[in-house]
Amino acid sequence: MEGRFDSELTKQILAETGETITSVLNSVYKGEHPNRYLANFTKTINNHIEHPQMQELMRQSFRDFFGNYLFVYPDYLKYRIGFCGSIAFHFKGILLDELEKIGYAKENVLIINEVLPELLKFHL
What pTM does this model have? Predict the structure, then answer.
């Protein structure tokens, strides 16, 4: 957070979460499950998603994801793509916007929050 967000947004995030810069760094670099720890910030990100710096964080995160996992497939635009989970679901607008920028049509994208209800619909 330090240097990534303006000081006012950083103060708001720390106040909301009860964290300090030191506790965040310790949890990320020395904690048992840093991915789980960071996932706890999803609600806070969503609370501040209208802030330009928070939007850019999410947009860049999705672009990084595309670069690491989507662009490695030749002709990736020929295929439908699906996302399952709370990040994709709660930040659906930003995700769809970024997918459209790389050429995906909305009708070729599936975004669901939980997989089990969809599996039950399919198999029952």
Answer: 0.84
Domain positions in the chain are 1-48, 51-124
How much helix, strand and coil, in percent to the nearest 5, is found in the chain? 65, 5, 25
Q: Are 10 and 1 in contact (CB under 8 A)?
A: yes
Residue 22: CB atoms within 10 A of its CB come to 8
Give CA–CA dist 4/83, Å, rounded.
Answer: 27
Do residues 49 and 58 touch, judged by C-beta distance below 8 A? yes
pLDDT at residue 17 greater than cutoff 70: yes
pLDDT in tens, 86-96: 899 999 999 99
